[in-house]
Amino acid sequence: MSLSGPEVQHQQQFSQMAKLLLIWNVTVTGVVAPFGNLMPLGLDYLQHLREALREEIVELEVLKDGGQAAVLRGRRIRTPSGTQTDDSVAVKLYANIDEDERIVREIDAASCAKSETLVDLLSHGITYLGDTKARYLVCRFIEGQPLSELLQDGPKPAIVPIVGRDVSTAIVTLWKQRIVHRDITPKNIILRTGIESAVLIDLGIAKRPGDGALTAAGETWGTRGYLSPEQSSGTRLTCMSDVFSLGVTLQHALAGVHPTGFNQNQLNSGGRSSHPRHLPTTSATMNLKAGTSMQQSPQPVT
To answer: How far is it, in rounded angstroms, from Cα 247 to Cα 129?
Structure first.
């Protein structure tokens, strides 16, 4: 496949950035799989939640309702310990008690992996919305825009260094706690408003290598088109899987189109697309280059 002048330039730019970005020591929406109506109170849950949290959080409004959880924005006026405050927060609400173990893992990941490039968990708890038991997570609200929305307007080469720097920092921060994010995609990266920084959000399917499976055999969590080959096949993961997903995301941002047209099978087999607008993926090469940056972080668990 022959590439046009701009595509060749993009490819050269990406090769240079890959060398620079991945030598760095490499918050809250729903997860990937739909699960039907897990808000049994329907639209009434908002009023129930406002009542349940009225001593701590006011002005609650729904940002997203569906997927794995409802996400709301509010103003925190008091911490759980009673200290007065005034923070803009995001509240992630789960009303499906069958998801408890996965939610516990999300809380664990957000509690132990602290970085300005990751979701900042402020508190969490259990409440009742009417007769329904619900879990909620309160995180600091991020003023910004998802990378996925920015890419709707075309290539964003100027923000690739920012995303590469900050998301790679988030990957290393998680891996120091032996946690793999497993869903690094443009929709889970927020570019802060007015600040040249990015935040990796949604630890909803983050997992330690030794954690047991929460899905049936053959099922895979994550977003197809961004999965590493090992994640796609359901094998044991390390931080290198997240680096692979970051590589695909950076190419998407640089070229303005996904490198394989979201074709996961092509990523698994080397990443070359027959579509003339899709640049060949160099994520596998990036994994090798990233090995140097990971040498000072904990080594993969075998």
So the answer is: 42
The tokens for 41 are: 């109170």
Pick from 166, 158, 153, 139: which is nearest to 21 by CA?
166
| Distances from the Cα of 276 to the Cα of 2, 72, 109, 221, 246, angstroms | 8, 41, 40, 30, 22
Alpha-carbon span 88 to 292, nearest angstrom: 39
- The answer to whether 249 and 267 have CB atoms below 8 angstroms apart is no
State the Cα–Cα distance between residues 289 and 14, nearest whole angstrom: 13
**Which uninterrupted H or E stretch holds 244?**
helix 239-255
Amino acid in position 175: W
* DSSP category for residue 207: B
**244-289: per-residue pLDDT in tens?**
999 999 999 999 999 999 999 999 887 555 554 544 344 434 443 4
What pTM was estimated for this model as a whole? 0.75
Q: Per the structure block, which two tokens stand in for 262?
A: 């979201």
Question: Contact, 164 vs 246, CB < 8 A?
Answer: yes
Q: Which residues contact 299 (CB under 8 A, 6 or more apart)?
A: none
**What tens digit of pLDDT does each residue of 183-214 get?**
999 999 999 998 899 999 999 899 998 776 65
Phi (first) and psi of residue 256, to 5 degrees: 85, -5
| Residue 152 to residue 6: CA distance in whole angstroms | 19
- Domains of the chain, with CATH numbers? 5-26+144-293 (1.10.510.10), 42-140 (3.30.200.20)
Measure the CA angle with vertex 89, ends 83 and 91; round to 5°: 105
User: Rounded to whole angstroms, what are the CA distances from 206 to 211, 222, 227, 255?
Assistant: 10, 10, 13, 28
- pLDDT for res 35: 27
Q: At what angle do helices 5-21 and 283-293 cross, to 10 degrees?
A: 20
* CA proximity to 90, closest of 109, 116, 63, 69: 63
